[in-house]
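sry for the spam today, last one i promise. struct tokens for design, 308 residues
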């Protein structure tokens, strides 16, 4: 699977540009320049020339993106080819330096993009919709090379983030990770919405769950908060960790199942204390046959009603 990541720590000084170019350039086994040199030592000056021409030397100097592939997913020769095709379409009119790395188990390309367009002089402003376009473009190009990103399914609990730094923070155990852990812990034992809210409160999280509001919002107690952000939506956790059960309706279903299981356990315990024999569970195959026969009967009943 080929993933596009945005490195948000893009500097605002000429020195920061030189540093990132040295980092990606020195480690590269292959480089390429779109509208610029393929020698990383010359890029900073070329970027500055464009900025100076349009009198836009201040502000963010570059944008940094990474395109990474799964291990053994693609050959070294094709990595640069895909990188060039993606960058040419994603950053038309911009100078883009590409550096391909093989220092990790997965091949990946770094893109250092001049924020000033050398054709129009306009600055590159990255918004959510632009990133969506870039990801869709990546999927389209990769599919041509036999990599279907949309067919690859993520396991439940896999972290989903297009921001490399955010991914690493979440993976190491951020506030959002600990919150997800407590939600899973409490949804397994809670028997109602109220019970769940109470259990979350005991663990240091207040829960805003209002029927006429779309989102469930959790607030982290200051005593256990490690970062700056203290409020998290359940829907965001569902997307970040790819857990479909992080959903209002799903939670209520789970609570009802927990309640039913507890009721059964309680009845079984009473029956055991009173010396009653616990009813044997029906054979799984017998259950399936009965369910199938029941469905057939219901269908037949509908047919009869129609005929009458």
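last one done:
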């Amino acid at each position: 699977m080929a993933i596009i990541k945005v490195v948000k720590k893009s500097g605002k000084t000429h020195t920061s540009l030189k540093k990132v170019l040295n980092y990606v350039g020195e480690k590269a086994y292959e480089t390429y320049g779109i509208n610029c040199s393929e020698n990383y030592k010359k890029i900073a000056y070329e970027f500055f020339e464009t900025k100076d021409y349009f009198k836009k030397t201040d502000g963010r100097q570059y944008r940094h993106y990474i395109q990474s592939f799964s291990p053994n997913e693609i050959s070294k020769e094709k990595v640069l080819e895909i990188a060039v095709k993606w960058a040419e379409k994603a950053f038309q009119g911009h100078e883009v330096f590409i550096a391909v790395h093989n220092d990790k188990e997965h091949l990946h390309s770094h893109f250092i993009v001049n924020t000033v367009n050398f054709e129009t002089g306009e600055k590159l402003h990255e918004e959510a919709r632009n990133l969506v376009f870039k990801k869709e473009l990546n999927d389209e190009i990769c599919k041509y090379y036999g990599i279907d990103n949309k067919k690859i399914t993520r396991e439940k609990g896999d972290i989903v983030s297009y921001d490399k730094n955010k991914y690493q923070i979440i993976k190491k155990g951020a506030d959002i990770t600990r919150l997800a852990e407590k939600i899973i812990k409490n949804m397994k034992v809670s028997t109602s919405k109220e019970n769940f809210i109470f259990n979350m409160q005991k663990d240091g999280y207040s829960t805003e769950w209002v029927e006429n509001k779309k989102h469930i919002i959790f607030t982290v107690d200051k005593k256990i908060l490690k970062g700056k952000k203290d409020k998290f939506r359940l829907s965001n956790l569902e997307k970040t960790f790819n857990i479909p059960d992080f959903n209002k309706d799903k939670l209520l279903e789970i609570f009802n199942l927990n309640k039913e299981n507890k009721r059964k356990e309680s009845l079984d315990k009473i029956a055991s204390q009173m010396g009653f024999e616990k009813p044997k569970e029906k054979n799984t195959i017998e259950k399936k046959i009965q369910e199938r026969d029941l469905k057939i009967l219901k269908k037949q009943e509908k047919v009869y009603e129609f005929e009458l």
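The beta strands are 3-7, 30-34, 62-68, 96-101, 108-114, 205-208, 217-220, 231-233. ok im logging off now
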